[in-house]
């Protein structure tokens, strides 16, 4: 019986090693894309590093991107079937809206 326990305990401990969880924030990137499936921005929130670029891929119906925070790059006028990029040089959270479609909003977090 004792020999059997010596085999079971190490095996059980090894099986419990599993995945480690982390409270670290998700990694930031220097460039990413935001899409417009219907009347939403996807993803809603995008995290990038200072100096990173976000490309807005606007397809289908016309949309615009209007930033509401100081330090944000230039707004994007109403376009459809276009890709428009903006570079973020300042840390902060930059909310934006499509004023063509009320309630269509997103944010860029720059770290």
Your description of this structure?
The chain is mostly beta strands. The protein is 13% helix and 44% strand. The protein has a single domain (24-110), classed as Immunoglobulin-like (Sandwich), CATH 2.60.40. It has one helix spanning 2-15, and strands spanning 29-35, 45-58, 63-67, 76-79, 82-88, 92-97, 105-110. Strands 1, 2, 3, 4, 5, 6 and 7 form a 7-stranded mixed beta sheet that branches.
Low-pLDDT stretches are 4-27
User: How much of the residues is beta strand, in percent?
Assistant: 35-45%
Head-to-tail CA distance between termini: 58 Å
CATH superfamily: Cupredoxins -  blue copper proteins
How many domains, in number, for the residues? 1
- Architecture in CATH? Sandwich
Major β-sheet profile: 7 strands, mixed
Q: Main attributes?
A:
single chain, 111 residues, mainly beta, Immunoglobulin-like, seven-stranded mixed sheet, globular
What's the layout of helices and strands?
Elements: H1 2-15, E1 29-35, E2 45-58, E3 63-67, E4 76-79, E5 82-88, E6 92-97, E7 105-110
Parallel strand pairs: 1-2, 2-7
Antiparallel strand pairs: 2-5, 3-4, 3-6, 6-7
